[in-house]
Design a protein that fits this description.
Chain lengths: 264, 597
């Protein structure tokens, strides 16, 4: 089976985010970049499908050169090759622009299944996978916690948690699946894996290589525009309710809710 | 990038390296960064969540964690691929050691033995059969290694051990009897690398399997720190060891024992870098949230001083460690790890840098002790309370100045190695001393101050070398081959050498960074280097005076001191302002951030 994984590089969730002077983006200096955690589930699932059915796992990334590092990490985990679309025209792309770029890469590839994370943990739009499936004209199953490919590799069953139960959805292949937390436990890159990754192919492509023109991507091609980014309001310090016994604490809590919070 | 240069061991004392000739943490390749991340992710994902459990000894957990590390290739960075190893360069190997441990003493102990003294002797001195039999299992963590050298009456003086090995009548076995003490991993090891006297006098290495008859272990020692690690005595009672399990040659155990320790030392330095970075992050986080007198204590000058001084020392420590790792990689180039005599060649190549490895061990363990001490101080009373991370780290740290050769023994070794290199003609030390003496006659200190960035520091390091050579030269002239008996003088010379290597390593790194990235992006590197050299230079001056005062008197002493004064002149810089700048750069991010991975 040929498996494609779309991978985004995002700031480490532990990074202290600073807003850039323009007020519309974040300062990228001193940021530690990681593979988007949901995409990491997608990479792991791709490797597991490959281990069962054979074939090849291709990682596709969009972004500046630093994204190479995240693709290499996925190669070190066991993926076979990588493609990075790196072009100044990409800057300012919205989800639609990114999906256009990915579909331009993918339309020339031979594939059975595409895996994405359900959303990027940076801007949290959660729509690139869906738009991509639409552009490619293939079925999509999103926010998935279990993937079962049929023995003859013609269909896929995907589980998705819904309020009070699990939804099991079946689709013909090729299809696109977006990964939710709980899908699997991603493996670490092993040291021999890292050394082998060095020799795996990683192609760089520009917008022109893909037959796109600059009006379809970047700020020009964007349907939405970020007006402003503001930090969340700082959380006030909490209060520990005092008291020797549970009864005393409950009494104190009631008093605080009544007198200070004025909610009862 | 210009070529790194292969310097000889100890050559830094007489040759001024160029920044492009030494390896620095800014030179990590992409693969090295990925390897570091992989080790760090393992530490964060597998070790850190089990911190509390690992605080007490849990043999099964340790074994399973070592096996998980083995699956990722993290136990075998120094082992050849053909024996199941990951076969990486030394810089990568050091990075793995630095990044993996997450300040967890018990794991660090088990891991350090497994990847160092508990397996490297076979890598370097084992026969192909021994390697084939044991290395794959040590690499995967299926077998746990232990290194049993110390006996109750033989610590630093290890080669006179009393454990005996007697050849059986059929010539097939050695019968080993004796007791080894303070053996790490003893409680759950499968393989014991140990030493015994054959025919009473021939000190010899042996590979012994724990499951063989006649081996028992004593109770767990109640240690000051590293409570999560196992340390026991191992008792050998008529243990039949097949002759094929002699490690190295009969009567040549000292080669195995001493080289193993030599080689292991640079890894200990690496581990201290990792622990220091872990602890300083914790201390800064605390200082930012601890409010006294209405503001976070991180805003107070004396706390900033502590944070900055730790940053500076960590910076210097890692500059030293990776410079040496880079040097070792160069020295090992061209040795095919799969070839039969690769281990022996590797051992020989590494032995040439025993002096640098000792510096790394002494400096690293003392920086770590400084760091844990100041972290406790920042946390005040809380730092003294058990269950606080720093309280156990404070106790764990102390052993590092004792094991792998005490820091005292290592200081003696530094000078011993230097003298031997000089006598063997490997290092033209006497010529260098003579040149400095001549230089002294004609030298007129210039009155102008150097203007360029780090130019003044460059000159100070060059002068410190001259001061060191004067001290070493005068002491050798006075005591000749009896110098080793004057341990206090030897230790002073060793400390001067350590300071020189430390200053120069930081200086070369900061200059290399500055040349590549410009002044603005190298500001903190430069500040740390300047403060360190400012202080270290004065220590070199004082120690040189102490050497002179110990060996000369009257007119001779006055002449020596006058000469010294020419090289020791310098104008101090405002270290208070620089330390504040350094502290202010790390406090917002709450971690040591001078090295980018």
């Amino acid at each position: 089976m040929n498996i494609l994984v779309c991978l985004k590089q995002v700031p480490d969730t532990e990074t202290q985010i600073k807003i850039a002077p323009d007020g519309m983006s974040i300062a990228t200096e001193n940021i530690k970049w990681i593979i988007n955690p949901y995409d990491e589930y997608a990479v792991e699932e791709a490797l597991r499908i490959k281990e069962k059915f054979g074939g090849e796992v291709t990682i596709i990334g969009v972004g500046p050169k630093r994204v190479t590092e995240s693709i290499r990490t996925a190669l070190a985990m066991g993926a076979d090759k990588g493609i990075l679309v790196d072009d100044p025209a990409i800057t300012g792309s919205d989800s639609l622009g990114i999906a256009r770029i990915l579909s331009a890469v993918i339309k020339d590839l031979d594939y059975d299944i595409i895996l994405c994370g359900k959303q990027g943990v940076d801007d949290d739009y959660g729509i690139v996978g869906s738009i991509l499936a639409e552009l490619l004209g293939i079925p999509q199953i999103s926010v998935v916690i279990k993937v079962e490919v049929s023995e003859d590799a013609s269909t896929v069953k995907a589980h998705r948690e819904v309020e009070g139960g699990t939804l099991v959805i079946e689709s013909a292949l090729p299809a696109l699946i977006t990964a939710q937390k709980g899908l699997n436990e991603p493996r670490y890159a092993s040291l021999p894996g890292i050394m082998k990754a060095k020799k795996k192919p990683l192609d760089a492509k520009t917008i022109a290589d893909l037959g796109l023109d600059a009006s379809q991507v970047g700020e020009n091609g964007a349907k939405i525009k970020i007006k402003q980014i503001t930090p969340p309001e700082e959380r006030k310090a909490g209060k520990i309710v005092e008291g020797e016994t549970p009864q005393e604490m409950a009494a104190n809590l009631t008093r605080l809710l009544h007198e200070e919070a004025k909610v009862i | 990038m210009a070529e790194l240069k292969l310097f000889k061991g100890g050559e830094f004392l007489i040759t001024d390296a160029l920044p492009e000739e030494v390896f620095t943490p800014e030179d990590f390749t992409n693969e090295q960064r990925l390897i570091a991340k992989s080790a760090e992710e393992f530490g964060l994902g597998e070790l850190a969540p089990r911190r509390d459990e690992l605080e007490e000894l849990n043999e099964e957990l340790l074994k399973s964690l070592l096996r998980s590390a083995g699956e990722l290739g993290l136990l075998s960075t120094d082992m050849p691929e053909i024996y199941g190893g990951s076969e990486l360069d030394k810089v990568s190997s050091v990075l793995v050691t630095e990044k993996i441990n997450q300040g967890i003493g018990g794991f660090l102990l088990a891991y350090g033995v497994q990847t160092g003294i508990g397996s490297l002797p076979i890598v370097f001195f084992g026969t192909p059969e021994q390697k084939k039999k044991y290395l794959p299992k040590l690499a995967s963590g299926e077998m746990i290694g232990a290194y049993a050298l110390t006996e109750s009456a033989h610590g630093s003086d290890a080669l006179t051990a009393e454990t005996t090995a007697v050849l059986s009548e059929d010539g097939k076995y050695y019968i080993v009897n004796g007791q080894k003490q303070f053996i790490s991993n003893a409680g759950f090891c499968d393989l014991i690398l140990t030493y015994a006297q054959v025919d009473g006098t021939q000190f010899t290495g042996f590979i012994i399997e724990r499951k063989w008859d006649g081996i028992s272990v004593d109770e767990e020692e109640k240690k000051m720190g590293m409570h999560g690690g196992s340390t026991r005595s191992i008792i050998f009672q008529d243990v039949k060891v097949p002759v094929e399990n002699v490690l190295g040659e009969v009567g040549r155990g000292h080669i195995v024992a001493l080289n193993t320790l030599n080689i292991g030392r640079y890894k200990l330095g690496a581990a201290t870098v990792g622990v220091c970075k872990f602890l300083i992050a914790d201390a800064i986080k605390y200082a930012k949230t601890r409010i006294q007198f209405g503001r976070p204590i991180s805003q107070f000058g004396l706390i900033k001083h502590k944070i900055a001084e730790m940053v500076i020392k960590i910076y210097v420590n890692e500059s030293i460690g990776y410079r040496i790792a880079g040097l070792l990689d160069l020295a090992l180039q061209g040795i095919d790890p799969s070839s039969e005599n690769a281990g022996k060649k590797t051992g020989e190549a590494l032995r040439k840098y025993a002096l640098e490895c000792s510096i790394n061990k002494v400096f690293g363990s003392e920086v770590l002790d400084y760091t844990v001490d100041e972290c406790v101080q920042i946390m005040g009373g809380y730092g003294y309370i058990q269950d606080n991370l720093i309280e156990s780290a404070y106790r764990d740290s102390r052993i590092n100045r004792i094991w792998e050769g005490t820091n005292e023994i290592n200081r003696l070794l530094i000078v011993d190695r230097l003298m031997k290199a000089s006598m063997k003609g490997e290092l033209p030390l006497l010529d260098a001393v003579k040149a400095v003496m001549e230089d002294l006659m004609s030298y007129r200190p210039s009155m102008s101050e150097e203007e360029g960035l780090l130019e003044k520091e460059q000159k100070m390091v060059a002068h410190a070398k001259k001061m060191g050579l004067l001290a070493a030269g005068a002491a050798t002239k006075k005591y000749m081959d009896k110098l080793a008996n004057e341990q206090e003088v030897v230790a002073l010379i060793a400390d001067i050498i350590i300071e020189i290597f430390a200053m120069e390593s930081a200086l070369l790194r900061a200059r290399k960074k500055f040349q590549k990235d410009g002044e603005e992006k190298s500001k903190i590197h430069i500040a740390a280097t300047r403060v360190y050299i400012n202080d270290s230079f004065q220590r070199v001056d004082i120690m040189t005076k102490q050497v002179f005062a110990a060996i000369s008197e009257g007119e001779e002493l006055r002449t020596q001191l006058m000469g010294l004064k020419k090289f020791a002149r310098f104008t101090p810089i405002n270290t208070i302002a620089l330390r504040r700048e350094i502290a202010d750069s790390v406090i917002p991010v709450a971690r040591y951030n001078l090295t980018k991975i």
